[in-house]
Design brief:
Strand 1 (31-32) and strand 2 form a beta hairpin. The relative contact order is 0.13. The chain has a 22-stranded antiparallel β-barrel. By secondary structure, it is mainly beta. It is globular and about 75 Å long. It contains six helices and 39 strands.
Length: 676
């Protein structure tokens, strides 16, 4: 492998300096949306990664993991198929599954609930056409998070296609997409069905999804958007293993003990039915003044037969976002001012029963939890003579919740967290064409989610408080000629009252505030254009390398008599290095050859157990077959090419050292995408 990379780098360098300038858009000129604050990538003050269609092609039909993990600073983990975490600069410290401390939007709509929890796994990867990943606090635009924000974009151009694939472990995937401009309406209808038996015992997945979108240009200066997402997700959860159990049989589920049954015996898993719908209106009142408003609601029917109980959750959500935008241009200065509000309510009724081998038994606890969140925000962007760019914002954030014990005891209360003023200031200076330097400082705040306040131990953790901290960073972006783009960022984030996950002897989780963390790191990206080699055999070549180099430490963190101050942050690798090489042969055959290196990481706060480092390789072959009005895109994917034994998602701080969720060894996927 080392020899191969040396050869690839040598070859790409020779191509780099022999390549003639082409007319394609420069990488530095990619535009980001930043939730209706569009700007060019090279002049953005934000720390942002763009997941383009080229990266999305790397994904299996099940997950967005491969494309997200190709970007420095973002990491998606899989505990078992269907059970995912997303970490932005180490933010998964508090996530046993799902997404917390990372805000997620789907087009204009808000996928995260008012408490900060996101059911990211309900989204089919084939629905997504582009992702923007914002790293660190961006409270003036997205509210109270300390990890980051993901903007998921669906299709915005006409397309009619069908996808069919099958692979290892009984994997089957089918999807249909119809996107069409019909008069004043741009309509998208998307449907997906996915299933797999997966690699381990008790880890099968089934997902059904329908997505409907209508963008109605009802006036020359106004557009109304409507969206409905229907998702039915069911996946089994095999549970974590000890190292010895994993070495003995990587495919087994968590085994029972003399007092606690195993995952298969209890039919452990998740069944999540969700409907999300909303309306959004854009109105350009004058050429300088515009207004945006969004209202949405969702309902979630969530079942979780766990080893020790059977939990039902019924969630109702409502959210609103509105803002006024004012733009003014002078001779050498342009300005944009935004004033707005975003808020939501998350109302959950939770019922826990005995779990009699996957069937509800006697009642244990019934509780109600209602979370409220909202933030007022004001932001100002300034552009001085296309050389100096600033983005200044301030938000006032409010979080509270009401709780009630219904059965067997009766008790209630309310907690209101202190309102937080969160400023952000970013500056970019364009040194020359395709060369910029930027700096940013901002404060982030993240309140406990509903699943942290009332976790699987069925207790309300009323002493949890929001985590908060200041982030400072600097960065360089440089376009070399017309063929190579490089970016480097350094950040320093000091967080206090960090929320950390714990597990008790029954495998139930609970959460505590862990004092302070010091998170410092460097992130790099090197990406080339697509080189036209003017050769009938080897036609095109493109490469991409990214890396994260972190030094994350606990500060002032004591648990009982144990002092963990100075220890490495749990579950965060010091180094991740990713690469993607794209080749085209015979003007037809495309090859995507990707690698993901992850260094060792501590699996508990004491740092007494470390994971192994690993290097995972994937390869994909794509071949188009053209007919008169139809195009067949045939593809073959080989995941875990080197048949590596590794873990893709650990259970950190797991009781009994059950840290390990083994990932699949070498596996295959064969499919076709038909475009009409």
């Amino acid at each position: 492998m080392t020899k191969f990379y040396l050869l690839a780098i040598t070859f790409s360098t020779s191509v780099l300096f022999s390549q003639k300038k082409d007319s394609a858009t420069l990488i530095s000129e990619v535009r980001i949306d930043a939730y209706k604050k569009p700007t060019s990538f090279i002049t953005s003050t934000k720390s942002v990664s763009v997941v383009s269609q080229d990266l999305l092609n790397l994904n299996t039909p099940e997950r967005l993991l491969e494309s997200i993990n190709q970007n420095a600073g973002s990491r998606m983990e899989e505990r078992s198929p269907g059970s995912y975490r997303i970490s932005v600069r180490g933010s998964s410290l508090r996530s046993p599954f799902g997404v917390r401390n990372v805000k997620v939007y789907l087009d204009d709509f808000i996928l995260s609930d008012a408490s900060g929890n996101t059911y990211f796994n309900v989204i089919s990867p084939e629905l997504i056409n582009r992702i923007e990943i914002y790293k660190g606090p961006e409270s003036g635009d997205f509210g109270a998070v300390t990890g980051g924000t993901l903007l998921l974009k669906t299709r915005n151009a006409e397309n009619t296609s069908a996808n069919l694939s099958t692979g290892s472990f009984g994997t089957f995937n089918q999807s249909i997409d119809f996107s069409k401009q019909l008069g004043k309406h741009f309509v998208q209808i998307f449907e997906n069905y996915y299933q797999t038996d997966s690699y381990r015992e008790q880890s099968a997945v089934k997902r059904k999804q329908i997505f409907l979108k209508d963008e109605f240009q009802y006036a020359g200066n106004a557009q109304l958007k409507a969206m409905v997402l229907l998702s039915d997700l069911e996946y089994q959860t095999p549970g974590g293993l000890t190292f010895e159990q994993m070495q003995n049989d990587r495919t087994q589920a968590r085994q029972g003990t003399a007092t606690i049954p195993g995952a298969s015996q209890q039919n452990a898993g998740i069944r999540n039915k969700m409907i999300l719908g909303g309306l959004a209106n854009d109105w350009n009142i004058t050429p300088k003044l515009s207004h945006f408003m969004l209202v949405q609601g969702s309902y979630v029917d969530f079942e979780n037969p766990f080893i020790t109980n059977f939990e039902n959750r019924f969630e109702s959500n409502f959210a609103l976002r509105t803002h006024l935008n004012y733009q003014q241009n002078w001779q050498k200065v342009s300005a944009e001012l935004r004033l707005g509000f975003e808020g939501g309510i998350n109302d959950i009724f939770i019922k826990n029963f005995d779990n009699n081998k996957g069937i509800e038994g006697d009642p244990q606890n019934f509780d109600q939890l209602k979370s409220y969140s909202g933030f007022y925000f004001v932001s100002q962007k300034l552009n001085f003579n296309e050389k100096l760019f600033t983005d200044i914002s301030l938000s006032l954030n409010s979080n509270s919740y009401e709780w009630e014990k219904i059965f067997p005891a009766s008790e209630n209360g309310k907690t209101k967290f202190k309102d937080q003023l969160l400023p952000n200031f970013g500056l970019t200076y364009l040194i020359g064409k395709g060369f910029s330097v930027r700096g940013k400082i901002g404060k982030g705040n993240s309140a406990p989610t509903n699943e942290e306040i009332r976790s699987s131990n069925q207790e309300f953790t009323l002493n949890l408080v929001p985590e908060y901290g200041w982030n400072k960073e600097i960065g360089l972006r440089k376009q070399f000629g017309n063929v190579l783009f490089a970016e480097a960022n350094y950040f320093d984030f000091r967080m206090k009252d960090a929320i950390v996950r714990r597990q008790n002897e029954r495998g139930q989780e609970f959460f505590v505030n862990s004092g302070e963390t010091l998170q410092q790191g460097v992130e790099i990206l090197l990406e080339s254009k697509n080189f036209d080699l003017k050769n009938d055999f080897f036609n095109n070549f493109k490469f991409r390398f990214s890396g994260s180099f972190y030094d994350f430490k606990f500060k002032n963190y004591k648990q009982g008599e144990n002092d963990f101050s100075g220890n490495d942050l749990t579950g965060v690798p010091k180094t991740t290095i990713n690469s993607l090489l794209n080749f085209t042969f015979f003007n037809k055959l495309s090859v995507d050859y990707s690698h993901f290196h992850t260094s060792k990481m501590p699996l508990n706060d004491a740092n007494t157990v470390l994971s192994d480092s690993n290097l995972i390789g994937n390869i994909q072959f794509r071949y188009p077959v053209e007919f008169e009005k139809t195009r067949l895109n045939l593809f073959v994917q080989i995941q875990n090419l080197y048949n590596t034994e590794y873990v893709l998602g650990f259970d950190i701080n797991a009781f009994g050292n059950r840290f390990y969720n083994p990932a699949a060894k070498r596996n295959f996927l064969l499919g076709v995408k038909v475009e009409f």
